[in-house]
From TrEMBL:
<dbReference type="GO" id="GO:0005506">
    <property type="term" value="F:iron ion binding"/>
</dbReference>
<keyword id="KW-0732">Signal</keyword>
<dbReference type="InterPro" id="IPR036396">
    <property type="entry name" value="Cyt_P450_sf"/>
</dbReference>
<protein>
    <recommendedName>
        <fullName>Cytochrome P450</fullName>
    </recommendedName>
</protein>
<keyword id="KW-0349">Heme</keyword>
<keyword id="KW-0408">Iron</keyword>
<keyword id="KW-0479">Metal-binding</keyword>
<dbReference type="GO" id="GO:0020037">
    <property type="term" value="F:heme binding"/>
</dbReference>
<dbReference type="GO" id="GO:0004497">
    <property type="term" value="F:monooxygenase activity"/>
</dbReference>
<dbReference type="InterPro" id="IPR001128">
    <property type="entry name" value="Cyt_P450"/>
</dbReference>
<comment type="pathway">
    <text>Secondary metabolite biosynthesis.</text>
</comment>
<dbReference type="GO" id="GO:0016705">
    <property type="term" value="F:oxidoreductase activity, acting on paired donors, with incorporation or reduction of molecular oxygen"/>
</dbReference>
<feature type="binding site" description="axial binding residue">
    <location>
        <position position="420"/>
    </location>
    <ligand>
        <name>heme</name>
    </ligand>
</feature>
<dbReference type="InterPro" id="IPR002401">
    <property type="entry name" value="Cyt_P450_E_grp-I"/>
</dbReference>
<dbReference type="Pfam" id="PF00067">
    <property type="entry name" value="p450"/>
</dbReference>
<comment type="similarity">
    <text>Belongs to the cytochrome P450 family.</text>
</comment>
<dbReference type="InterPro" id="IPR050364">
    <property type="entry name" value="Cytochrome_P450_fung"/>
</dbReference>
Amino acid sequence: QRKSRSPVSDLPLPPGPPAWPIIGHLNVMPTSHEWRTYGEWAKIYGDVIQLRIFNKSLIILGSLDAAKALLDHNTSVTSDRPHFTMIYDLMGWDWAVQFMGMGPRFLKYRRVVQSLLLPQSTRAFWPALDHGSRSLLRSLVHDSANIHQHVKDHLGGLMMTVLYGEDEGPTRDKYVELAEEAMHGLVEAGNIGKFLVDFVPLLRFVPEWVPGAGFQTQARIWRKLARDMIEIPFADVKKYCDEGTAPASVTKTLLEQQSHSKSNEIDTELVKGAVGVLYVGGADTSLSALNTFILSMVLHPECQRRAQAEIDSVVGQNRLPDLSDQASLPYFDCVFSEVLRWNPGVPLGVPHSVMADCELNGYRIPAGSTILYNQWTILHNEDVYPEPFKFIPERWMPEEGKPLPPDSRSASFGFGRRICPGRHFADSLLWTMMVRIVAVFDLAKPLDADGNVIEPSGEYLTGLVTHPAPFACKVTPRSQELASLVE
Ligand code: HEM
């Protein structure tokens, strides 16, 4: 006779480190590189861990199976986001789909954002990718000393060209500056624990003049930045559209859809917000992956040479590789997969929140829990990825009789209804930038004034999105002919 399953409410909570009365795990919470501590705890307590801060439950998933079971197969209750009062209510980021809770407004915004980023829709961005990546290569030919700055500037600029149609120049630089300022506030406020109002939401009604309500002044300043970021570029595109001179862009596409639509599904606030989130979601994450790629090439010249040999044999040296070559460069594809696995840019993913009690592996996941999925642990599981801390693109090469490990993309872009809608665009954008950099340049460790090799530390900075700690990189055109291709 089959044993009947216990109701969810009877199930035990997942295990975790010992908790203190009242405060729970508050004083054992890691304050930096949290993914490493959570990874250590996963070895002790298993791949589903529960932590408690006062009465708030935090669940950390440490395996792909657990993440899929909870977030892919139970999406109707696990696709909510935790509510951040400071960011959402006070700083006015309520236009950003990333922070929206489940509900009709989220579903409407998500539908629009997703439709803009479908593989067939993103083909329209290919000319901008071609143009923007050439421009990056040109900057590197003329000033090889500042690769990190050039990559950051060109990536941000390219995103703005795609979103607002603005070509290289002071206006586009201004858009990037506005977005970076707004995101600086976001990163500060995203430091959970920094603002008490996130734990006591009623404090948001305290007026700014009350002593101790400095968070209201800060929120007001950041709120203006978050608004300017979407309002100023939008107003320019709207004006050009009205004059009939707007170049192709995501904003223009949405404004056209808005004017042709009979329903009022797409309102102006949605257009501004749906475009703004693409920069928020795409710029820093893509920059992290590009920096990791550069680091991997500097540290592994043998992989770089193999990638260059493949490009030379398939594409030759008379033109730059482009997206039509992607399927013909299998080794480079392995390099890309390994970049996403070796040091995932969003190591703990973006938190989900649970809307109703549910079950996972015989444990109760209480309603209201915040869920983190530890991509870093998932992608460094040595049973799945042997020698997980080594950069080994060959692990992705198909071999007769040997199953491939789960694609790094299966964890790095998140799960369920919240899966990164920009993943196809990220694929084209990053592939183009990466392949072109190594097609034209050698990346290497530089020498100091005494002729000693400067070794990168290989360390990563802490944060929701992580980047390699600054490292020096020598950039040399592989040949004069290749360098001249970018002029
Ligand atoms: C290497 C590059 C990227 C990585 C690693 C990455 C990763 C992620 C992750 C982990 C999430 C959270 C998914 C979840 O909640 O489970 C996410 C969400 C999101 N990403 Fe990306 N992303 C990248 C590039 C992009 C790009 C290029 C765009 C846009 C052009 C983009 C737009 C978004 C948006 C709008 C969301 C929020 C989705 C939602 O809350 O429903 N991302 N991304």
